[in-house]
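re: that chain from earlier
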Amino acid sequence: MASRFWRAAHAGLAASAFFTSAGAGSAQTAHPGASPTVPLPPLPPPTASDPVAATPPPPSPAEPAAPSKDDCSKKKECRCDGSSCSSSGTTCGRCGSCGSCCTCAHKAWDGTVWGVRGSFTSVDGPERVRAGGVMFFGQSEGWRTDEGSIFTMRGASALSLGGGSGGVEGSLSAAFTLGLRAPLGDTHGPFARVGLGGELLGNSKFYYSHIDLPLGEVGYQYVHDRTVLELGARATPILTGRYNTGDTSRRELGTSFAWGGYLAVHTRYGRLDGSFTRVEAHHTDPGTPVDVARGMACVYFAETVALCADGMWLRGDQQPVGVVTAGPPPGTMAESIYAGATLGFVTF
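^ sequence. v structure.
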């Protein structure tokens, strides 16, 4: 307060001196012998107790920061971490939560196709069969390889139920394998997995089943975002199984060994799967192998609607049921085709 009072007093004295000096100048003009004006002492420095002096000057308005070109123009690869997108995240959720200028780096792919399937069954062998059916169909398959991890996993399942001219028709299958992938790259590398699986499908005129334990898979895979490319080989002992056609022909597949190869291509726009398996059924009469080839192709529209076609081809010797012979009963070749088309939806 004393400082403020002194500043006010000084301002008053300065004004008085101004007018005095002006008057003195006039007097000097009229009276050259007048005395000169005495100068005022300097102002004291401001003190910290003075609120006016202690208040800092207001900051100048900052210019808005320009958008970082490193985020969008370079399409920086980001990770989904919860609901945000950052380059430091180590886990990946759904890519839809990431920013539009980032490319989410998923290491997982999960897709489910479900809808209405029309089927066709054809058998040529001891009995000739032609049958059609309609059913509800659902199939799910997924891969996972975590960022910075050597572990890899694959799971698949399918379920269908309906009927037609071949009687009640449907399918039930599941497979799960877990293993290691060599870290040759962030998104690809050779792998080896082991697990178990099983399947049964068909109708009253065609039936195929098998239980696989343990189920082994080796191959090479690429997994990024919603794209999976995998080429591999499978081998497994079949604990029990069967290949039946018509009403009087069948083939036991238990205590046999199966091996083959497969290809899987899955993207956000569709999928393509193919496989070939040979069942070395040497322990069941007549001791010849049974070959199985299958494939599936889907096209996804707007990542919502799915149009799929699938097919399965089997070829192997069978035996008539209830026939008694002096020696091992002779085998009769049976060739079967089980195919269908599905219109439905896809979810990721």
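Confidence is low (pLDDT under 50) at residues 1-6, 8-34, 62-106.
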